[in-house]
Amino acid sequence: MADSQAVRVVVFQVGNLACGMLASRAREILAPLPTTRIPGAPDTVIGLVNVRGTLLTVVDAHRLLDRAPLPEHEGALLVVDVGTRRLGLAVGRVDDLFEIPAGQLEAREALPGVDVRLVKAVGRRDGRHFVVLDTEALLAPLLSAAAGGDRFNSRTS
Amino acid sequence: MDLNKYAALFLAESREHLTTCNRLLLDWEREPGSTEAVAGLFRAIHSLKGMAATMGYGRLADLAHRTEHLLDAVRAGRAPAGAGVVDLLLKAIDALERGVDEAAAGADGGFDPGDLPAALEAAAAAAAPTPAKGAVRKGKKAAEPPAPVSAAAPLPMPDFGEEAGRVVRVEIRPDAPLLGARAHLALRRAEQLGKVTGVMPPAANFDVQGFDGRFTFRLDAPVGESQIIAAIEAAGEIASVAVDADTVQTAEWRIPSAAVPAAAAPSARSGQIRVDRRRLDALMSQVGELVVARNRLLELAQLDPGGELEALGARISRLVSDLQAEIIEARMTPVWQVFDRFPRAVRDLARHLGKQIRFEMEGEGIELDRAILDELGDPLLHLLRNAVDHGLEPPDERQRHGKPPEGRLVLSAAREHSSVAIRIQDDGRGIDRRAILAKAKREGVVGPEVEILTDDLLLKVLGRPGFSTAERVSSVSGRGVGIDVVLTKVRAHGGAVEIASTPGQGTTFTLRLPLTLAILRVLTARVGTERYLLPLSYVAETVEFDVQPRTDVKGREAIVLRERVIPIVHLRALLGVDGGEVPPRRPGLVLEVGDRRSAVVVDSLMGQQEVVVEPFDAPKGTAPLFSGATILADGTPALILDAAALV
What we know:
By secondary structure, chain A is mostly beta strands. Chain A has one domain (6-142): CATH 2.40.50.180. Chain A has helices at residues 61-64, 135-139; strands spanning 6-14, 17-22, 26-30, 45-51, 54-60, 76-82, 85-91, 94-101, 106-107, 119-125, 128-133. Chain A has a 6-stranded mixed beta sheet. In chain A, strands 3-6-7-5-4 form a 5-stranded mixed beta sheet. The longest helix of chain A has 5 residues, at 135-139. Chain A starts with 5 loop residues before the first strand and ends in an 18-residue tail after the last helix. Chain B folds into 5 domains: 3-143, Four Helix Bundle (Hemerythrin (Met), subunit A) (Up-down Bundle); 166-256, Alpha-Beta Plaits; 277-334, Helix Hairpins (Orthogonal Bundle); 336-514, 2-Layer Sandwich (Heat Shock Protein 90), CATH 3.30.565.10; 519-646, CATH 2.40.50.180. Helices cover 42% and strands 22% of the residues of chain B. In chain B, a hairpin with a 2-residue loop joins strand 16 and strand 17. The longest helix of chain B has 25 residues, at 277-301. Chain B is flat, with a radius of gyration of 31 Å. Chains A and B meet through strand 4, strand 5 and strand 7 of A and helix 18, strand 21 and strand 22 of B.
């Protein structure tokens, strides 16, 4: 990445971790919504929510990153694009949305307690570090590889 | 006028004609003496030619013309359908299909029929008897007047010469395709001669439902009557042109107008109108939202029993239901629209594999929601291919087993309760269960203790993604390849698949589909603190579970209902619901899918409602028990259980 390029980043809390993601992948930030459990889905999946008439599967960032989950109705819901799909990501407080020169993001530097494969880069803001999550790596494994993209279809076996 | 707006219409109508051609060609091949098939082919190709010419697709029209010419020669010469001619015509239909697609996409100029035109010419010359010319003419006149030039003489008309120009009355042949486009074209020819005024009905109404092809206008041009007639007739499909027509008579033609109800219009075509499917889909989805809003309104109305809101709610509810029913009705489409392409595919594949197959279709008039039907083409084609490739034996093998050399393959549709059953039935060798079982055991799909594959188990094994894509099992016993894809598609639409196979006698696949998928009547069941929805069409009855006599069938709990043993499904356990107290008296929902039943035990029932089925992204691991989800009146999502997965 060239220095002249700037990236927009959303920064939020997941447990004690300061996280960020590329704003280009985040559709919107919502307050938590009533959730319907999906039987059989992994623990990391909270369930389905209704975002203005569209159903969205919500995944808990805390469980994905081995942090203690938040009590219900707390935190925020990021609507995230993963490939051609769209998912909800339940996070803690959303702190900031800002532009940062691409040069100030360091590629894949591990922070203690985070799986390095889920980290796209590490940035620094006001003297604090935050990890820019690789949302593809984080979320794509949860999606069923429904060939042909039958979104209805819940049968994976 | 912009002809482009007719491109979609042209595409749809042309495809219909070509599908008809395919069907008729196969009929003809079966019954080479049939003159009906040839006459029908001729009509379809003739219409296609007319439409292509109207649209200005020269190359396509030319190929259609040559095809028509061959048909004409065959018809006149009463030549039997030699395999060579049928094959050539099938090729021509394929090329025309390509040409239609390309032309509609705006690339008629790029359409290249290869050496087909020459082959068609040669075949036409060979098919016709020696004094071809006279016979051809005669044959042509008998069924179909020649297209481009009408011989109809203009009627003598009184001279109304006071105003500028002359009154011209045109009548397009009422059976002409793209009536409106043709009228525009005729008008354009007139405009090339001079000033056109007072078009009646107005040209904008040519495209309106009910336009019957008759219109008048005033033409101020320095040319004679015969020139006017010749120019307009050059537009083609003209029944008559009258110059200096009596304007008074035109009054009766002012019927075509958007305001006039279809029933009042005189044209035979007026009862039908083509609507872009996307519009129907948009309407459907809006009605869906309306249904959700209505449900919410009814909830609010319940807070004030006997109040004005309740009365209004009931009224709105009825109106919404009616509206919904109307739109669903409008989306219903007969299955032949999809079935029609199969005879050709089956025939081609059978030929390729050296098999003799009698392919029959039944119940083509049965209707299904267009959205379901559109998704059904590929799975059905897949099952038919499997039947031809693996199910039905080659003629010699059939004879060795004392069967007629010609295999029978039947595709049928039938209404059963509130669903439609589509069956693909062959009288082939049946599925080799032993081979499938052995393979399933090797792959660990079933345990080593399993001794026989029941039909249900067979389907489960075959329905596993990728099962039998490898090895010979698919060619020995067939049926494996891609059954999972079929299952997935059908279940995604709330349907179910059944299989029945008898060695030596054949295999039947049954696809059970709801009439419509967008809106579902469901029963809401509560389990713990959660709510789940069950499609009402599969609920045979509800019983009080805790008072029913119980029994044990092969280690599985069951109830006995009217001397029938029905296995029990505890939804609480199945879905891993904890929390909430288990009530002492629980209802059991008896589900019925095909001839399979089960009693689903829930905590309580919360009534019926109509819901709009919404897609959702099922994460990995999701229990394979759901056919979709919806948003309830209070705004929360709820999952819809797949009845077929519970029985």
